[in-house]
Amino acid sequence: MSPLPLFDLPPELIPGRLSEIAGYCGQQTALVLLLHYPGVHVAIPKNPVPTHKLAELLGFAAFVQLCALYGNEVIQIPRAAVAIRALRNQKILKDFSQGVYQATMALEHGITERQVNTICNTVRIDRQLDIFAL
Asked: Domain boundary at 79, 94, 115, which?
């Protein structure tokens, strides 16, 4: 799976804790934590050891940085639901512009065709408003 272009979104859509982790430890570390621990509390040890589960998951260098930032704390990794939904909607709109069937997009994203249609209609409405702006 390719990394999510999460940090290409407007900063107001990205939860503060995730931005903080990305700024200090790197975007890859923030994305790995988001994918493995969404909405979960994670205990960060004060002294990093290479055998810790997070060290194996993130890599030891990134784990050391995470421990320097949050050592001896229990932090909650945000779900970033708004940001992930925005990414999903961007992909749906891109696929829609390329002629992908709404049923195909619904199955791919685990949503209903009606929801795909609602997302696609936001573009249609925007285009209509642009015509009147002339």
From this structure: 79
Structure tokens at 63: 């784990």
> Are 15 and 68 found together in one domain?
yes
pLDDT, mean of each 10-residue run, the chain (134 residues): 66 90 93 94 96 96 97 96 91 92 96 95 59 52
Distance between CA atoms of residues 72 and 47, nearest Å: 8
Contact 53, 12 (CB under 8 A): no
Q: Which of 35, 26, 6, 11 is nearest to 68 (CA)?
A: 26
Give this prediction's pTM.
0.74
Decide if 48 contacts 36 (C-beta within 8 A): no
Q: What is the C-alpha separation between 66 and 61, in angstroms, rounded?
A: 9
Q: Which domain, by its residues, includes 50?
A: 10-79
